[in-house]
Amino acid sequence: MDRFTSEILIRKKKKKVLKGKKILLGVCGSIAAYKSAYLVRLLVKEGADVRVVMTNDAKSFVAPLTFATLSKNPIIVEFYDKETGEWENHVEISSWADLFIIAPCTANTLSKFANGLCDNILSAVYLSATCPVFIVPAMDLDMYRHPATVKNIETIKEYGNVIIPVDSGELASGLEGQGRMAEPEMILEHVRNNSPSKVVK
Ligand SMILES: Cc1cc2nc3c(=O)[nH]c(=O)nc-3n(C[C@H](O)[C@H](O)[C@H](O)COP(=O)(O)O)c2cc1C
Prior knowledge:
Layout: H1 3-16, E1 22-27, H2 33-45, E2 49-54, H3 64-71, H4 90-96, E3 99-105, H5 107-115, H6 121-128, E4 133-137, H7 141-145, H8 147-158, E5 162-163, E6 167-170, E7 176-180, H9 184-193
Parallel strand pairs: 1-2, 1-3, 3-4, 4-5
Antiparallel strand pairs: 6-7
Helix pairs in contact: 2-3, 2-9, 4-6, 5-8
The structure holds flavin mononucleotide (FMN).
């Protein structure tokens, strides 16, 4: 087989991995949230069925309409609608998912995950999840290297979640260093290659 044919076969094989998979994407309040819009596009192009859960702060960075349009699904933000009393079943949402990616994951949400806090729909879905969970941190370098964050990341790993490493480079604050969210293509590669069979909870 020549190189050209084998590359086409590899691409075709890669494409199949996420086809038909139900992927839940959690988005937190970080400037890196704009990259997650492109991640949704990549996942949808792979043939995945994508639903997006946003924190309230995430809505200040990217409009829910952007994620709803790209994922072709309504966005999940609140536990319940205050006017109608209609509520989101976080257990149903998490059991729907084959994979759960949280990108970007803020220092705040990392801390909630490490400590079992459950004060918004994203943390409730996380605590209920039994599928593989991929956490993609994004924050400024001093937040990232703070002992509390380092400890929270270690704890989250011990729980069986996959941490997709941060990139190094120019940060939104103007500082240089570690903390940039991994690029969407890199996240996709991690998810394709590292799906753990079981999450320890
Ligand atoms: C412009 C701006 C950018 C921010 N970027 C980040 C970030 O990249 N990472 C982070 O951990 N927090 C960041 N924050 C702080 C979070 O938005 C804040 O901690 C918030 O409470 C996170 O809420 P959430 O985890 O519920 O989404 C940023 C705040 C602002 C105003």
